[in-house]
Every structure is written in C-alpha cells, then in structure tokens.
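General statements about sequence and structure are easier to judge against a single worked case. No coordinates are needed to read the tokens, only the vocabulary itself. The sequence in question and its structure tokens are set out directly beneath this paragraph.
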Amino acid sequence: MYTDSHCHLYQEYYDDINQVITNAIKEGVTKFITCGCDYKTNFEVINIITNYQNVYGAIGIHPTEINKVSEILKLIEDNINNPKIVAIGEIGLDYHYEGFNKEEQISVFETMLSLAEKYHKPVIIHSRDADEDTYNILKKHHVKGVIHSFSSNLVMAQKYIALGFLIGINGTITFKNSKLLEVVKQISLTDILIETDSPYLTPVPFRGEKNEPRRVLEIAKFLSTNLRINNLKLAETLGENLQRFFDI
C-alpha cells in the first residue's frame, strides 16, 4: 500500500537486509527507494535493485561524503540508464557540522544537478542548515524531485513547492517538539511524500530503536489521524505523487 521513498539499505546498518524488506512487505510497504551517499553505498544500491523487484535506487553524493567524486560520477553515468535507478540522490548541502567546505559542497551539488538535467532524472535533495543556498541553486536548474527530510518552515516549503518539488516527511513529524505538522496542515497532500530515512529518525513510539522501512506505516498513521484523512485516500494520493515524480 505504501512506499518508503527514502531509506538506506546498507550492509553496515542491517545484518539481514532480506528480513528487513520481508518485514516491511508483510506490513504493507510495497515499494522502496534506497539512496546512495558515496561510492561504496552507490555500488550497494546498484546491487540490491538487481536482486529485489520492488526495490528501486537513487545514486548520488551526500554533501558530507565529498570524496572520490570523479569515480562516483563515472559510476553514476555508467548506471544512470538502468530503469530501476529512479533519481540522482541524495545530493545537496549540509552546513550543520563544523569544518564543512561550503564552496566544495556547492560545486559538487551544481555538478550533480547538471547531471540530472542531462539525463532528465529527478533529484533527492539533502539540505541541512542551508535552505537559502539550496533554494537559490535549485532555482538555476531545470530539475524536479523531493526535499528529503524537510525540517524548515511553511514559507520555505511553499518556495520549494513552487519550484516543482515534493516535501519529504519522515519520523521527525512525530517528535514531541516538532513543528512540522503545522507546516503539513497548510500545504496540499499532493505536495508530499513519506519516507523513513532508515536506519535514522525512528518515529514515535519506536524512538531508540533502529529505524526500518516498515516504520513508514507509523508516519502514514500519524498523518491519517492528524489530518483526519482516510488511510486509503492517503495511500492513494501519496502513490500518485510518487508515480508523478519517479514513475514507479
């Protein structure tokens, strides 16, 4: 019924990825998009989508993993026409941690967006403490996609939506001090996707446990309750959003 539109099904995180996928399917998660961050994980993404019919991939360079750029670019271009590679990502900017190289991040981000334009692929955007630069850079490129793990305000959400982006909602919306629900209430359901970012950002009431794609159901349940929308209608709308952007 639901898709986990952003997870990281890496061997370093899960002892038995097959069991993680099986558990999710049993609970009604029918599709998965696993996202790469660097050379090793992009390679893992390519392998896993070959072995699982309902797992799709995105390959890219995470802003905190800017190394082996030329090798990753070659890997992406060698595999970008694989029909199960549905996006370039995750890519973007991250100014959260001390010591980041802003100029290098922007340069790599621009390169990845140009690649997405060249191959007509949607993008999965990581933006942490960098909304202004992220938005201004996206304005210059003809791309669409999703703002993964959105954590900003309503104005920023509306600006991204106006550029043609979906807003990625994950377990953070269930956190006690989160203001994200108030943002979601003021935008259209046709402008969001749900995701887990597994193994991170486990939703309430499972915080403290390693996150898994099956927990996307908790996010759907939270939205259904708080937006007062029928679960089937929610699933249908989110599925249409996914199909519109990622064609899966």
